[in-house]
Design brief:
The structure holds two protein chains of two kinds. By secondary structure, chain A is α/β, with parallel strands linked by helices. Chain A is built from ten helices and ten strands. Helix content of chain B is 85%, strand content 0%. Classes of the chains: A alpha/beta, B mainly alpha.
Chain lengths: 252, 217
């Protein structure tokens, strides 16, 4: 197992009085894909959002315990959530390109982080689109509106946009659930190539997808982490009966 | 698309081929150890069987993981299912090599009652069938798999010949019974190796075409 890139240590989360996560402890290995699976309401998306402090904006949300990025607590006093989110990027369920050109979508992040050199920006845009396996499809229409792209292309554009600020971790929340099977396969294949440079954490309802792309799987149930391990092991001989029941479709 | 998965299938088939090549060679070595009375080689074959078994377990485990993680369908699914079946036959071929090597040890020191002629020929044919089956596997060539049937008939014919000949020896001189019985076992092991090779051929035909053929009547 690679070194831990991110680590939750007895992490609990409440929304007001309602518990969302209960004492989650897990180490996410670097340069790998970790899938988070579990039935609706199990806390998997809540957990993902704690990893780049997206829950900061949820009224009444409160956490205990810690989340470490390269061994440092991201919730420590004085930590800046904006610079954290540059290092820990996120891709959402529905493609959400900005209402601007393809080029501007990708250049947006580097610009707000201070990159003013247009030549360098062009390089970053091309590198990011290449990394997101979209360059060949859009190289001739960078000045077109992002909304002219298909849903699958828009999602890869959102991945390119996330990559443009050179993150270290990429969080993906159901990145393919709004896409058709061909676009889904492209996103999956892309995810596998991205792990060479990034650490990916993917929430998915689609168990088969977790099997196809992930190196590690975490199974969440009722706000608790039931089991974490290599996907090969979880999918062929899970240690916990609840994991077995869920992945074999016996409950949920 | 799904290039990682297809790469995995490719590596799986390479490893099946590697295991097949290994057990095919071990049959040849076992029969040569018998002809030459070479106990050292025979012991090496017996010791080496753990490695063959480990290859089978490794390939089976990977097949199950592929089924669990990648959900193969259609020809991909047949590749995985066939691999599981093929390594079972290959493992049995490996066991026959061990059985033959054990005969070498059992009759060690005794001069052979007669120079071995038909047994090495059976071995040569059984090895060729295994090689041909593996080639048809790699090339996805069902025609080559069908050819195995003809060679198998030759092996069966040689087996009857060996059986008759050894029976005559035993009737003429009961002191040969010990050795003749063991040589008869060897011939039977080789006949079984050839049968496993026809199983490989049937598996290849199924993998390529999805059709079931009985190559071993």
């Amino acid at each position: 197992m690679n070194a831990a890139k991110m680590e939750a240590d007895r992490l609990s989360l409440w929304y007001g009085a309602a518990p969302g996560l209960k004492e989650i402890s897990v180490k996410v290995p670097e340069n790998s894909i970790t899938a988070i699976i579990g039935p609706s309401g199990c806390g998997k998306s809540s957990f993902l959002r704690t990893l780049n402090r997206m829950n900061d904006h949820v009224p009444g949300a409160r956490i205990e315990g810690s989340v470490l990025l390269d061994g440092e607590d991201i919730y420590a006093r004085g930590r800046d959530p904006v610079s954290l989110r540059r290092r820990v990027g996120m891709v959402f369920q529905r493609p959400n390109p900005f209402p601007m050109t393809i080029y501007q979508n990708v250049a947006y992040g580097p610009r707000i982080h201070g990159q003013r050199n247009e030549r360098r920006l062009r390089e970053v845009v091309e590198e990011s689109l290449r990394a997101a396996a979209l360059w060949d499809e859009v190289r001739d229409k960078l000045q077109k509106s992002a909304f002219e792209l298909s849903g699958g292309q828009q999602q890869r554009l959102c991945i390119a946009r996330a990559l443009a600020v050179e993150p270290e971790v990429l969080l993906m929340d159901e990145p393919a659930s709004a896409l058709d099977p061909v676009a889904t396969a492209k996103i999956e294949e892309l995810a596998v190539t991205l792990k060479e440079r990034y650490t990916l954490i993917v929430v998915t309802h689609n168990m088969q997808q977790a099997g196809r792309i992930s190196d590690y799987t975490a199974f969440f149930l009722s706000g608790q982490l039931v089991e974490f391990g290599p996907t090969k092991e979880i999918f062929t001989r899970p240690q916990d009966q609840r994991t077995e029941d869920y992945i074999t479709g016996r409950f949920g | 698309m799904r290039s990682t998965f297809h790469q995995e299938l490719e590596e799986l088939q390479q490893d099946v081929l590697r295991m097949g090549t290994l057990v095919e060679e071990r049959i040849g070595q076992a029969v040569r150890s018998l002809a030459a009375g070479d106990m050292q080689v025979a012991k090496e074959i017996i010791d080496g069987d753990d490695h063959v078994d480990a290859m089978q377990i490794d390939i089976e485990t990977r097949c199950l993981q592929i089924i669990a993680l990648q959900q193969p369908i259609a020809s991909d699914l047949r590749i995985v299912g066939t691999a599981i079946k093929i390594v079972g036959d290959l493992e049995r071929i490996g066991d026959h090599a061990v059985d033959i090597a054990k005969v070498t040890l059992r009759i060690a020191g005794e001069p052979l009652m007669k120079p071995l002629i038909d047994v090495p020929r059976m071995a040569e044919l059984a090895q060729r069938m295994t090689r041909d089956a593996l080639r048809s596997y790699v090339r996805r060539d069902p025609d080559a798999a069908h050819e195995l049937l003809r060679t198998d008939d030759q092996v069966d014919h040689l087996y009857s010949q060996v059986l008759r000949e050894l029976l005559v020896y035993m009737m003429e001189d009961p002191r040969t019974i010990h050795q003749a019985t063991h040589l008869l076992f060897v011939a039977q092991h080789l006949e079984r190796v050839a049968d496993h090779a026809t199983n490989l051929g049937e598996a290849v035909i199924y993998m390529v075409s999805g059709e079931r053929k009985d190559l071993n009547h």
